[in-house]
Amino acid sequence: MTKKMARIAAAAGAAALLSSLATTAASAAPARPAAPRTVCHAWEEVQHSYPLEPRYRVAAECTSLSPASKARGVLDLTGRPDAHTGWFTSTGVVHYSHWATPLLGVRGVRMEYAPR
Length: 116
What we know:
It contains one helix and six strands. It is α+β, with helices and mostly antiparallel strands and 116 residues long. It folds into two domains: 1-32; 39-115, no CATH class. The strands form two sheets. The chain has a three-stranded antiparallel beta sheet with strand order 1-2-5, with no helix packed on it. A three-stranded antiparallel beta sheet has the order 4-3-6, with no helix packed on it. It is rod-shaped.
């Protein structure tokens, strides 16, 4: 073996050693935990009571909620103040607002979030 071939072999061996060390160090680094996801939804419920106008309320539930947040469901009423559930931090529990009769209708439902 010539000196040139010996140097190439030594350089290739050193490169392989550095590559395996880098791979080992990367695999030994702890994985960063994923940020907690907030997964919540709200829906409208209607109570028909003939001959009176129907009444509405919002129901809200979170299946996952960030530890730094609280949530509530909101029923957007036209012509009246919005109906809200109470603020909650629990998961897997359905929360309800009071029954309300809008003057002109319901615009929809939404979730609101705030820091704890």
